[in-house]
Every structure is written in structure tokens, then in C-alpha cells.
From TrEMBL:
GO terms for molecular function: inositol-3-phosphate synthase activity. Residues 214-318 form the Myo-inositol-1-phosphate synthase GAPDH-like domain. InterPro entries: Myo-inos-1-P_Synthase, Myo-inos-1-P_Synthase_GAPDH, NAD(P)-bd_dom_sf. This is Myo-inositol-1-phosphate synthase. It comes from the Bacteria. One of its GO terms (biological process) is inositol biosynthetic process.
Amino acid sequence: MRTGVWLVGARGSVATTSIVGALALRAGLADPTGCVTELPDLRGPALPAFTDLVLGGHDVVTTPLTKRAEALAAAGVLPGRLVAALPDELAAVDRELRPAPTGGTQADRAAATVRDLTAFRDRHALDRVVVVNLSATEPPARAHPAHDDPDALRAALAGPDEVLPPSSLYAYAAVLAGCPYVDFTPSTGLRLPALTALAARRGLPYAGHDGKTGETLVKSVLAPMFAMRHLRVRSWSGVNLLGGGDGATLADPAANAAKVHSKQRVLGETLGYQPQGGARIEYVEELGDFKTAWDLITFAGFLGTGMRMEFTWHGCDSALAAPLVLDLARLTAAAHAAGHTGPLVDLAFFFKDPLGAPTHSLAEQWTRLCGFAHRLPTGGAHGAPD
């Protein structure tokens, strides 16, 4: 199943790491560590192989992909040997990257994005293209009457106003082009009634939001533990120190608030109450593409005895996120081939703020993900083109 993976924010750290990783896996130069779709419980013929993935994307910057990869290697994010071994492959992907459409109305920009997506699909004779949003986190979308109706939205986009935030405009264009959409960010994306209705009309699946790679991953394991042991969490406070482009973006208070809301959802919905405390995100330029999180949990045991737990997480966000991007592209492509439509709730395992998730427990999400993978038809991976 030849599958296009169109990355929005294709020259960013996560996207570049995903591209280098996919090329290295295709060439047999690396092991699939971190790719959960390569575990025995998920791996199967319904998923496109790494050799079937064709990469492209949009970005507002024009730095050559090889230069971005070399910079990440110098920062310790990527092995330099892989970048040195894949110059031709990186150059080939670079030729598939397009500047983000600018100018004109939002309808004009959406039409230009649709043209890029369909040309990419036709040029490589792809069965389907999965659009994955890896762009910078946006502030929450401002309400607009057209957000509730697909036909009103189409008319409004032809006017002079900025009706949709960028993530939602990409989601709109993806749906028009017949492409499944994955939002790895906490941005609005497809989470507008007009867009979900349009996706339903077109029979498309979609997944999101906000990839679960670090502190929240740990929360999704620990919070169910406290709940199942009937231990009362009195407070849970976390400090997140980030460098790189993501940290710089989150220095904006509105974008920061959107991210914090996504990170905190797991506690209230798992415990059944919201403990005192919160999450704080700070930009520390010196950290580069690495991040540190420190959490302090206070809780009460039998007879009210007070206790505490602390943990510190040091990680490289791009190296944690990139294999999940490849996993999501493969799973969403297989879901599309199998005829799934609407939100892919069984992919909640991958997200901090998952669409329609019945649980935030990582163990329960894993069970649902495995069930989803087992139900994919083993003989239907080569479904009809979009």
C-alpha cells in the first residue's frame, strides 16, 4: 500500500527526525526502537511497510532538509552517521517539500494546498495520503459563526476575513483532497463542527490531539495507579523546561495555555477530581531540543497519612515524537483503507488530549489499540485510491 505522509511543518525538528528515521528504517540502517507498530501485538500486513511510505510536506521556512538534519545531529538529536549515509534520500524528500501557501483569501490558500496534495498523490501513484500536522502550537481558535456549518464555512473562506486558524485550514484542505488527517499538536485542527461534518461527508478518518511523549505519558500511568489503589491525590504540580522551537512557541501565553490545558486533562478525567496544583511550561533556550520535567505529587493513604512522590523526566522531544508520527501515519492509512470514518478513538494511546477517548489510562488505551490493530482486515490494505 503506497502511502504518502504529508507533514505540515516539514522542516521542523520533529518532522525532520521523522523523515530521517523513516529513510533509515527503509534503508535498514536503524532499528525501529520507539515505533510501537513494530511490536508483535500491532505489527501486521494491514499496515503499510516503511518501504511504502513516500514523504512530502509544507513549511514556511526554506532551510534545506539536509542542513536541518545536520543541525539536529550536531545537537545530539540524530546520529550523525545516518545523516551522512542518506544525502541522496534527504535531497529527494527535499524536492517534495513545498512552501506553505500564502496570499489571497483562505479559500485560495486551501485550494493551493489541495493542488499540492493531489499532485503529490498523482506524481507517486499513491493509494492515499495522510496529512500530519506538526506545526507550531496555536492559541485557541476564536469563535466564528461559520465554524458550525460546512456550507457557511466555504462561503466565509472566500471573503477577506481569517476565519480558520492555520491548523484548521490545513485540516479543511486535507478533507477536500480526500486525505485522512492527524493532529500531533494541541491546536484546533479538525475540532470544529463544520470540519467534522465535512469529514463525515467525505468518509474520512482523523486522529488527534497533542502527541503524548513525556511528562503526560508518565501521568497516564501513575494517575490510574493512585485511582486503583484508592489513594487520594491532594496535589500534583509539574514544571516543564523546554528549549528549541517548541519552547519558543510556548513562550507565547495563549499558546502556552492551550498546551497546559491539554496536559492537565488526564488527571481530572482519570482521578474523577482535579487535585490542587497545575503544570507550568517555561522556555529555556539553552536546552535546545531537549526538555526536563519535574513533578511533585502529594497524596493521602490509610487513616489520612500524608505521603509524597517526585519524578524527573529528561528527554529529547523529537526522538520521542518521531516514531509515533510514523506509527500514526501507518495506522491511519490502514484505517482509511479499511473504510473507517470519523475520529479514531482507539488511537488515544498516542495523545494527551485524545478525541472521544473513554479512558486516559495508558494500559487501557494500549488494550484498545491492540484490539483496533487486530480488527484491521489483513487482506484489505490495498484499498482503492482516494
